[in-house]
């Protein structure tokens, strides 16, 4: 493994950081999350057209830059530092790779160039709190997480030569603003029970939900006898395998994003304790405060190394390290954000200060993609570290 980044990778990081410093400060983040879209469309257009962010990991034949997961992780790290609300995760990291892996030639040719340009955004809709399971991060995704023929989730049935969807999905990342939904639905009953992915271009009802982490807007999607298009042309497609592959790369990207957020909130905390005085001196000069911040610094650097390794391993086919890296990064962000709240004192609890946003990002991501102990248990189970292959969680 070559731990050095290329000049192009360093340029991606530098350019994106400079742009976000100018365009995505705390006030801009607050205004974006309160908007109808849940993000700043003008900033997204800049990220798409000038920097090519949504097409970084897509092949050049489909309008992308032909880069790897590593470049997406570096971009996500900068987005995480600013807590920048954007469709990058939902559209470029979760949905586009599924279209690339499972879509027909016509579907890929029609949709992927539009996603790569930022003209079209997509979102992955899976039932309730099953996103981590569907991606194979916290459990086996070959089970009945898409409904299993029972109430809940989304059901699909054939009708008039096409497919019709019925059901409801909560907590769809950027689902209220996405132009295209990839909906996981159960079909086949008990005899041929399976989960398939469908393209939902219009129809249904979308309602934006209140979320703990406002920088990750979510929606409820309801479909009642709505026409949909099967993703791909093979009903026996390995949907679970494709989702697990996307889950591993998405975990590496998410880990880098969490590291960026942890690094930034630690920087802000160090700046604050250097200014705030108590007993006639800056509180950052007290040994106890130095020790606490030093512990967080070491933790952030360790999580960064794990995230970079996971991105490299995913890009090179060297193993599935995304889940473990994500567990370490989420744990680091939660600990660093909690330390920041305490060391900021009274203002750390105020709505106006940005510290609480980092703490909510940590808690919200663990609810969506964790919890941490399940991520680690799943990684251990997959690696066969315990006899019998079962890990109690």
TrEMBL record:
Molecular-function GO term, any one: flavin adenine dinucleotide binding
Keywords attached to this entry: FAD, Flavoprotein, Oxidoreductase
Superkingdom of origin organism: Bacteria
InterPro entries per the UniProt record, alphabetical: Acyl-CoA_Oxase/DH_mid-dom_sf, AcylCo_DH-like_C, AcylCo_DH/oxidase_C, AcylCoA_DH/ox_N, AcylCoA_DH/ox_N_sf, AcylCoA_DH/oxidase_NM_dom_sf
Entry keyword Cell cycle: no
Cofactors, names only: FAD
Cross-referenced Pfam families: Acyl-CoA_dh_1 (PF00441), Acyl-CoA_dh_N (PF02771)
Domain Acyl-CoA dehydrogenase/oxidase N-terminal, chain residue ranges per copy: 6-119
Domain Acyl-CoA dehydrogenase/oxidase C-terminal: 252-376
Family note: Belongs to the acyl-CoA dehydrogenase family.
PANTHER family for this protein: ACYL-COA DEHYDROGENASE, ACYL-COA DEHYDROGENASE FADE28
Protein name, as recorded: Acyl-CoA dehydrogenase
Naturally occurring in which organism (per UniProt): Streptomyces fructofermentans
């Amino acid at each position: 493994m070559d731990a050095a980044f290329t000049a192009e990778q360093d340029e991606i990081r530098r350019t994106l950081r400079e742009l976000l410093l100018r365009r995505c400060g705390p006030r801009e983040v607050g205004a974006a999350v309160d908007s109808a879209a849940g993000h700043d469309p003008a900033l997204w257009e800049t990220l798409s057209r000038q920097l090519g962010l949504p097409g970084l990991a897509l092949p050049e034949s489909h309008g992308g830059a032909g880069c790897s997961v590593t470049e997406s992780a570096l971009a996500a790290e900068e987005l995480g530092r600013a807590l920048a609300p954007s469709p990058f995760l939902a559209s470029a990291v979760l949905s586009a790779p599924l279209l690339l892996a499972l879509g027909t030639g016509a579907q890929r040719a029609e949709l992927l160039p539009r996603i790569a340009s930022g003209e079209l955004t997509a979102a992955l809709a899976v039932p309730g709190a099953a996103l981590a399971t569907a991606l194979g991060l916290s459990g086996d995704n070959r089970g009945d997480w898409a409904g299993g023929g029972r109430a809940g989730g989304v059901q699909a049935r054939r009708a008039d030569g096409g497919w019709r969807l019925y059901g409801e999905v909560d907590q769809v990342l950027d689902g209220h603003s996405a132009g295209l939904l990839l909906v996981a639905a159960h079909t086949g009953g008990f005899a041929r029970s399976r989960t398939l992915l469908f393209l939902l271009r219009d129809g249904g009802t979308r309602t934006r939900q209140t979320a703990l982490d406002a920088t990750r807007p979510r929606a409820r999607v309801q479909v009642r006898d709505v026409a949909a298009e099967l993703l791909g042309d093979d009903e026996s497609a390995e949907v679970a395998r494709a989702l697990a592959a996307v889950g591993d790369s998405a975990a590496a990207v998410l880990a880098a994003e969490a590291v960026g957020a942890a690094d930034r909130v630690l920087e802000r905390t160090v700046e604050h304790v250097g200014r705030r005085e108590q007993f006639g001196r800056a509180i950052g000069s007290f040994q106890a405060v130095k020790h606490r911040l030093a512990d967080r610094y070491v933790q952030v650097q360790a999580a960064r190394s794990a995230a970079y390794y996971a991105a490299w391993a995913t890009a090179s086919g060297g193993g599935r390290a995304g889940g473990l890296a994500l567990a370490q990064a989420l744990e680091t962000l939660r600990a660093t954000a909690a330390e920041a709240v305490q060391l900021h004192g009274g203002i750390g609890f105020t709505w106006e200060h940005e510290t609480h946003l980092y703490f909510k990002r940590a808690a919200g991501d663990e609810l969506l993609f964790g919890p941490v102990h399940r991520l680690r248990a799943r990684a251990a189970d997959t690696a066969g570290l315990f006899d019998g292959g079962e890990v109690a969680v």
